[in-house]
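Appendix B. Extra example for self-study. Work through it before the problem class; the solution is given directly after the inputs so you can check yourself.
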Amino acid sequence: MLEIKDLKKNYGYFRALNGLTLTVGDGELFGFVGANGAGKTTTMKICVGLLKADSGQVIIDGVNTLDGGRKMRNKVGYVPDFFGVYENLTAMEYLTFFAGTYGIWGTKSNSLCEGLLELVNLSDKKDTQVDSLSRGMKQRLCLARALVHNPEILFLDEPASGLDPKARFELKEILKNLSGMGKTIIISSHILPELIEMCSTLGIISHGEMKFNGSVEDAMLLSKGKVSVEATFAGETEKALLLLKESPFVTSPEAVGNKITLGFNGTDDDAAGIIKNLVMHDIPLTGFTKKNENVENIFINIMEGNEGGTAENADANVQP
Amino acid sequence: MQMPTFNLKNAVLVKDMQVRAKRSNLPALLFIVNMVLSLVATIIMIVINARLVTYSNNSNDHLPWFFIGCIIAESALICLVIPIISSTTIASEREHQTLDVLLTTSMSPFDIVLGKYLSCIAYVAIMLLSTVPALSIASIYGSINFFQMFSILLVMMVMAMFLAAFGVHYSVSLKKSNHAVVMSFVMTGVLLGSTIILVMIAYGIINAIEASFELKYGYTGTPYVTPDPSIFLLYVNPMCTIFDAVGRIVGFKFVDDYSLHTTMSITGMKTVIAEVCPHLSLDNIFVRFWTLFSCITQLVLSWLLLKSAARRLDPSRAKIRHRRTKNAGKQS
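Solution. Structure tokens for the complete assembly:
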């Protein structure tokens, strides 16, 4: 459905996209993750024809979007991260206007807009002024607006930002419904646990390059073997640090006061061996706690290029 | 859900008219315009009456001033209103963050620009039509028939279209609506004032050269270089068009009585040219049909300005800057 090849974009001296390559299949709900300024919005704007790329290709259902044109615009729906609404228009008039921009008028337009308002649970607000709607309702109305021409692919830029948990839940349910209807949806967001729960595939972007492009399961496999340990001592911390550095299962140990934090990639038996070794050398160990990496840390590691791929994630497209 | 079909209506125009109809701006504008016109007409009527009482002149010589005053006042109001409403069109969409969404629809940038432009024109058309009752009274007193009155309204409409095209163009070019409003007023001033100044400068320079040749060689025949073609720069001055149209309606006898042979004469450009361009034939078709050709020029320029605005608005036509980036070396 969507194929991005070697996309490059500079803003003056700042390189926003540096050869971004990405593939999204038909009917996928794709989560687009990245830090602020990573290039998510730029990528989306290029895909919907709002920005011109310096080089590369964006192919949506066989049409190169970089050529622009009405044919491309009929294939995509876009919900920007920040958007305004028109004053003095009701929700129904707002949708009718956008239906008109696609040449849909009259009774066709009315029935279409009523159907869309029902889809986004805003039927009871059809005669309400758009500027008096809540942020969550405006977001849902904007989503309905993006669906007015029945696009094949939807680009949603941070759709859940600024929404309360209830509005976020409602939006998530609508997106799941749309995905069930066979729409290809690309969502950028910072709320990673929600993306993992909702999306079938993920893309992680950093400094204008894709660091990961694969299924959510592949992304989760990256957490295997990623354990951090916090060891506390009553004294002899420097001696303990030297001993820990000798262990093949320990990575980057760091001492702060009586505490040492380290990366651990061994088994429980290996952990027991390390503790036994410390005790044998008369080091007063008072605590040894293992902590699994959370999802956000894994993404941060991938974005920073510290992913350290394992055999299990060989299928995922991890790009160092 | 339906697949899109060919656009017959302009959705932006329909929406803008819908929004404008709900606002109180339009009735307020109509009230102000008609109030100003009535005030001007009253003042002129008082002055004419005073002159009639003082000099006991024939009223037919004075009454056309009633019509002329109203037309000048209405033209001045157009020059004030048009830059404000036209230059906020696209810029306000940008400020309200609705432009990006509009550009992703199947409407082309030209359709968007045209919709915005036509909504301004419709606004001015309503304004002009609302002044018909006031102008009718002025026409009756000034012995102007309805056809002549509507022809003047048509010329004022062309003037509004020309100035609105500049407003829309600046609305696209500049990011903030207040900057666009200022630039539109500046451009209106340039069109109305600078064109005349440029023509005068051209005459001054060429006449000075001619005079020096006469002194040196004693030649006093038809000059080799004449500044006459520069008068056609005034084709883009909407006030010249209005004055020419008014002058042709009130007639040259009226002119002779008042001796208004100045550059900005209300007696028609033909009279101005006779004064300023003695070498230019007054039977020249471009002089005889000054109003018509001036209107055509302004409409063509308006169309080109709208095309240029649409080109600027189109993201796919944005210029690509092939610069060497600072981090290019590091990342490649």
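Self-check: The CA atoms of residues 137 and 259 of chain B lie 26 Å apart. If your reasoning did not lead you there, revisit section 3.
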